[in-house]
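Deliverable D2.4 — example input (structure tokens):
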């Protein structure tokens, strides 16, 4: 009976590890490399459905259905790249059902990054103290007094910013301590004289 309980406990541990390995492609950071020194993927070798996370440490919690990465975290999903001190990935309740479907990304329902968060996409960059990303809706929620989104020279600042990655819609919220701020630049026209 005692052996059976030990096997059941080991099975639960293996299950958590299998889930994390199925969900994520892990790359270990070399001790000699700088914290953000990661190889750049090319369009040819990155599947837009793939989620790749690199960090110094990983802890899993099968009961809580999450995996937590810490230490110079770099997460990428298509053109979205998130750099942060910590990243917590929450996965769905029934990973066995999803595992059989063969879509490991479908196992993740949301990701929460915190601490010195920097976000880059092909359209904008952002900085905040905390961001939550819902993979179903593709909505990013930046939360922090000085959350900022930059596109070219244009800058939006607020205490909360939501970005819908599907339709590009953005909402910026202020707080009693700090109002929303936007700085926009118009496109300059070439004002040369025509030859006479």
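Example output (designed residues):
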């Amino acid at each position: 009976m005692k052996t059976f309980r030990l096997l059941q406990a080991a099975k639960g541990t293996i299950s958590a590890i299998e889930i994390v390995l199925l969900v994520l492609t892990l790359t270990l950071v070399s001790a000699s490399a700088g914290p953000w020194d990661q190889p750049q993927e090319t369009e040819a070798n990155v599947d837009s459905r793939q989620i790749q996370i690199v960090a110094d440490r990983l802890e899993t919690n099968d009961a809580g259905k999450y995996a937590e990465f810490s230490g110079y975290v770099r997460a990428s999903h298509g053109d979205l790249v998130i750099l942060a001190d910590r990243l917590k990935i929450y996965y769905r309740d029934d990973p066995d059902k999803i595992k059989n479907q063969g879509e490991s990304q479908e196992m993740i329902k949301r990701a929460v990054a915190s601490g010195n968060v920097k976000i880059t996409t092909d359209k904008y960059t952002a900085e905040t103290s905390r961001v939550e990303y819902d993979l179903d809706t593709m909505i990013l929620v930046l939360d922090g007094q000085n959350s900022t989104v930059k596109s070219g020279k244009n800058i939006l600042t607020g205490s909360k910013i939501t970005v819908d990655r599907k339709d590009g819609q953005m909402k910026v919220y202020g707080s009693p301590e700090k109002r929303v701020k936007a700085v926009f630049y118009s496109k300059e026209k070439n004002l040369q004289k025509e030859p006479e």
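The two ends are 100 Å apart (CA to CA).
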